Amino acid sequence: MPNILRRDDVAFLLYDFLDLEALSRLPHFADADRSVYDAILDSVEKIAEERFQPHAQKLDANEPEFDGERVHIIPEVKEAIDAFCEAGLMGASFDADDGGLQLPYLLQTAISAWFSAANWGTSGYAGLTVAAGNLLAEHASTGQKERYLRPMVEGRYFGTMALSEPHAGSSVGDIRTRAEPQDDGSYRLFGNKMWISGADHEMSDNIINLVLAKIPGGPPGVKGISLFIVPRYLVNEDGTRGARNDVRLAGLNHKMGCRGTVNCVLNFGDRDGAVGYLIGEPNAGLQYMFSMMNEMRIGVGLSAAALAMTGYLHALDYARDRTQGRKITDRDPATPMIPIIEHADVKRMLLQQKAYAEGAMALCFYAARLSDEKRAGDAAQQERATLLLDILTPIVKSWPSEFGLRANETAIQVFGGAGYTRDYPVERFYRDNRLNHIHEGTRGIQGLDLLGRKVPMQGGAPLKALISEMQETVKKAAAVPELAELASQLEGAIALAASTTITMGGKAGQLGQETYLANATIYLDMLGHVVVAWIWLRQALAALERQARAGEAAGPLSTGKVVACRYFFRYELPDIETQCALLSQMDTICLDASADVF
Question: What positions carry a catalytic annotation?
Answer without folding.
Answer: 440
